Amino acid sequence: MSKNNASIPTILTNLESTGAGNDLLRYVALPDLLGEELDLMMYILGKNIGRKAECQSMEEVVQLFHDSNWGNLIYEKEKRRGFTFLLEGDIIRKRIETIDNVEFRLESGFLAETMSRLHDQSCECRTIIKKDHVELEVLYSK
């Protein structure tokens, strides 16, 4: 595999970081660039990353969240219409405390796509931001 086509797990394993640079892009540069399209584009970018990551199990999804500095993803429960996850950890708490318009659409798009792939059913994901964590509700699309 050439350097330009390294797999996402390889990139994450070999290029560890705190994620602060990504947060600068996400909360400072991209809003200026994308304007009103930011929310939709972040969700779509997350879905695209989910397609390229090709996670084969929930363990791989959880590991990717960890390696990406997206937080600790915890499976909470399965419901009739989908699944509930918690996203927590120091990075999540710090983002919620620091960023006025904190959002988790990239993570939501990624989780929607990977759950769609793992369960062979179209899914959507919505976020509920709490004081120190985020609830991610993955719902089967109708």
Radius of gyration: 15 Å
Helix coverage percent: 40-55%
Tally of DSSP β-strands:
4
Give the CATH architecture.
Answer: 2-Layer Sandwich
- CATH level 3 topology: Muramoyl-pentapeptide Carboxypeptidase, domain 2
Give the full name of the CATH homologous superfamily.
Trafficking protein particle complex subunit 3
The secondary structure category is alpha+beta
Shape: globular
The tally of domains stands at: 1
Please outline the major beta sheet: 4 strands, antiparallel
Provide the low-confidence segments as ranges.
none
Work out the strand percent: 15-25%
Q: Report the top-level CATH class.
A: Alpha Beta
Termini separation (Å)?
39 Å
The averaged pLDDT comes out at 89
- Give the strand line-up of the largest sheet: 1-2-4-3
In DSSP terms, counting alpha (H) and pi (I) runs of 4 or more, how many helices? Answer: 6
The arrangement of helices and strands along the chain is HHHHEEHHEE
In short:
By secondary structure, the protein is an alpha+beta fold.
Task: Explain how this protein is built.
Helix content is 51%, strand content 20%. The chain has a four-stranded antiparallel sheet with strand order 1-2-4-3. The N and C termini lie far apart (39 Å). Helix 3 crosses helix 6. The longest helix is centred in the first third of the chain and has 16 residues. By secondary structure, the chain is α+β, with helices and mostly antiparallel strands. The mean pLDDT is 89. It has one domain: Muramoyl-pentapeptide Carboxypeptidase, domain 2, CATH 3.30.1380.20. Pfam families: DUF2507.
